[in-house]
Amino acid sequence: MPDAVQLIQSLVSGIGVGLIYGLVGIGFCVIYNASGIVNFAQGVFVMLGGMIAHVLLTRLGLPIYVAALLAIPLVALIGIIIEVLVVKPMWDRGATMFAIILATLAAQIMIERITILTAGDQPRTFAEFTLGGPLKIGPIAVSYQLFWILGCGALMIWLLWLFFAKTRTGRALRACSQNREAAALLGIPVGRMLMVSFALSAALGAVAGILVTPTQYTAFNVGVPFGIYGFIAAIIGGFGSASGALAGGVLLGAVQALAIVTFGAGYKNVVALSILLIVLLFFPSGVFGAKEAKH
Amino acid sequence: MTSPSTISIDTRLGVVGALIGVALVAGVFLQGGYLVTVIGFAAIYGIFCTGLNFFMGYTGQASFGQNAFAALGGYGTAILCAGLSWQPLIALPVTMVISGLIAAAVGYPTLRLRGHYLAMATFALGLITYELSIEWIDLTHGYMGYAGIPPLGIGTYELSSDRQQLLALVAVLLLGVWIANRLRDSRFGRALRGIAGSEAAANALGIDIARYKLAAFVIAAVYASVAGSLFAHFIGFISPEVFGLSMVTASFTMLYLGGIGTIWGPIIGAVVVSILPEAIRHIAAMVPNAPSNLKDFQEILYAVLLILILIFFPKGLAALPGMIARWRETKSEKGA
Amino acid sequence: MSLLQVQNVTKRFGGLTANDSISFEVPESTVFAVIGPNGAGKTTLFNAISGFFPPTEGRIAFDEQDITGAPQRKIAERGLVRTYQLVQLFKDLTVTENVLVGFHLVTKGAVGAALWRPRWMREQEARIREEARELLAFVGLSAQADMQADTLPYGQQRLLEVARALAAKPKLLLLDEPAAGLNTDETQALADTILRIRDRGITVLLIEHDMSLVMQIAQRIVVLDFGKKIAEGTPAEIKAHPDVIAAYLGSPEAADA
Fold first, then answer.
1. Which of B187, B220, B243 is the last residue of a domain?
2. Average pLDDT score over residue span C11-38
3. Does C70 have pLDDT greater than 80?
4. One domain for residues B253 and B225
5. How far is B139 from chain A (nearest CA, A)?
6. Is B203's Cβ below 8 Å from some Cβ in C?
7. Beta carbons of B185 and C121 less than 8 angstroms apart
8. How far is C109 from chain B (nearest CA, A)?
């Protein structure tokens, strides 16, 4: 049995990772609320964020901040490409929800394979944003990266809030999520909103990926797990609000960390997936859900 | 089951298809070698997809985790036959029953979910099984995989050659399709297709939707389990990767290419998609500077193919005759 | 003896009272219509009667048994079958297959029977195919028997729905706006069909907006407005009823009556 220090230590890192899950979860919510589509490719944006940042760092020798700021719009662009080439044609042809979900899954796999071909299949990482040892609070070590995650996470939430509350596009997107038909009748270009939601989601995923890579690693196949964790976070949060998804992510990260330190790292995914099933079956509108999830 | 002109197209195509099928199997049988494995895979996936088709095509629900039951079948067979030296023909029905029971237990709460919740829950099932097959090393030998699985056989007689096993696989496949068809053309099958058409109307006509969906789910799981077991016997070796995510995408590609909700769609899709890598290999061999990492290209091709089919051709190849016939009908109606 | 008894049925959705203490009785072998302006609560009433959701208050008795709050499927088993406002055909099935599904309640046999095909199963199949032919002839869709259901024009889709519902051998047929979207000829065909259904001994309860149809075929009418019952009687009585005229005042339907 782990002792108190180990537990708290693991909780600390669990919460850090949980915030990342929350960011991915918000990405799920953005697309779902605008269109009713669950983007099974969400996780791949996380992978691409870390990967592209790493490539820019190593092959072009750019400093981390520049690499990050370049990587995010690049991933957003990939999100738009997926929407335009894969989702929109199906949407316009009235494809079933399952077919669209399947297509996004296929897109994820395709991107993963292309990544292997262009960047190799080795995991890689880059340094924390602020070098230097972890901050020691008593016996607990808190890595500087965790503060970056907290800070950037908060920044992203604030920027998102600004976007949805203050900009015209943001308000239009909110209208879409409330009632798509009414929004269309009001002249809001629902198709364009879909593109915006994909771009936004991808950017969120990219930020999450860049932030989390220094604490673990990035590789072509980290997309699927992060996608699942993000989905779980969104479900716990009821698929409605950003804060719900964040809370869900933190909860998941904490439980996962405790499970790892108690049972071993191998069962990390099984724990996460079991939580998913439990929530789906017993808390269909989310544990923190404010809004009833739309079907 | 459709207008007279389509029936004759159906029978004509049916005869052509049957001839092609026989020619294919006979040709591969005579040729031997690597092709036997390819067609054997096609037959195994054909069984898997027939089951998946039953659930998805006839009830209109989605399961992204049928590979879980294939893993149950495969590992069940491995453990029973290689680990405990059971007879294959006893292990097979036993694993089928186990998979069916687990499917019933899992399906009962899960099938109450709808839409993307169902998709995600079934997806999670497949992933959990995958993870467990890696982590539960004592039972499954983890990443290293499970080797030494005996081929199909009775008593001391084993189907030792690939060719004989291929015949057995094709026989099981045809039996599976026949069973699926029998079920489809019955009160049971019609109720399922009614649920796919309109749950509201089916309910108003007295159909117990939850029970029928569960029945279809269990049937699909049993088919998947058989496919997994047969794979284990055919190759003699299984590993977690076999029943992983690539099985999900491959099977969906086959199903959508062949045509969801049709009788022969699953087989057509399985054959076409299985032969594809061979065709690519031949083409690549002819091109001078072909890259060596074909597997990745293969996956990319599957993904692109699936996306294209989903966008432009979601009803698949088997639905083509029906579409052509209806196009002809509307043309002649306009003329008359 | 009345086949259906609706007693003080009330349905509230949060603060909205969609049905307010509605009571009436439907005698056997009649055509009984529920009419009223849009939003009067007619479909809500149907949903409560057919078991789509339970009423908030009140009691519903069918064939001398209390069915209040029972699930829709169980109510269908007792012989109360409904159709929906929006056509709910099984689009990928043929016309005949649609009707065959309707026989579900009056047939038996599941997976085992489907596989082994015992003699009683084969006889049952032959019998329901014959009855399906009869039903399609009854509604006038014999020529379309092997066509895909979604290729039918709207009016014929409606008739197919009726044929399918009849396959379940109901004692009471609930039709929700069956004439919606039909032209004059199609509406007349529907009217004839409903009368012939009544002549077969089946009771028909319908919601309708088309006043000429209602006046032509209904023997008793209940009028709803804002969730309350404001009148009940024969077509002649309803036509002259001051409250009904007031409720419909200025609406085009009143001009047709």
1. B243
2. 90
3. yes
4. no
5. 15
6. yes
7. no
8. 7
Q: Which of C138, C167, C196 is the last residue of a domain?
A: C167
Q: Does one domain contain both B258 and B208?
A: no
pTM of the predicted protein model: 0.85
Residues of B in contact with C109 (CB under 8 A): 186-188
The reply to whether C131 and C151 lie within a common domain is yes
Residue B182 lies in a domain: yes
Whether residue B232 is found in the same domain as residue B274: no
pLDDT category of residue A32 using cuts at 50, 70 and 90: confident
- Is A284 in CB contact (< 8 Å) with chain B? yes
Residue-range definition of the domain harbouring residue B56: 46-243
Whether residues B92 and B144 fall in one domain: yes
- Does chain A reach chain B with at least 3 CB pairs under 8 Å? yes
- Reading the block at residue B205, the tokens are 């006509």
**What is the tally of structural domains in chain B?**
2
Q: Which domains does chain A have, with CATH numbers?
A: 4-282 (1.10.3470)
Query: Nearest Cβ partner of B2 from C82, C146, C164?
Result: C146
A48 in Cβ contact with A201 (< 8 Å): no
My answer on whether C113 and C237 are in the same domain is no
Closest approach of B244 to chain C, Cα-based (Å):
30
Q: Is residue C87 part of a domain?
A: no
Q: Among residues B189, B225, B58, B221, which one has the least CA distance to residue C111? A: B189
| pLDDT for B132 beyond 80 | yes
Nearest CA in chain C to B215: C111
Q: Per-residue confidence at A293, pLDDT binned at 50, 70, 90?
A: very low
C88 is a domain residue: no
pLDDT digits (tens, 9 = 90+) for C99-136: 999 999 999 888 888 888 888 889 999 999 999 999 99
Full residue range of the structural domain in which residue C98 is found:
94-167
Residue B23 lies in a domain: no
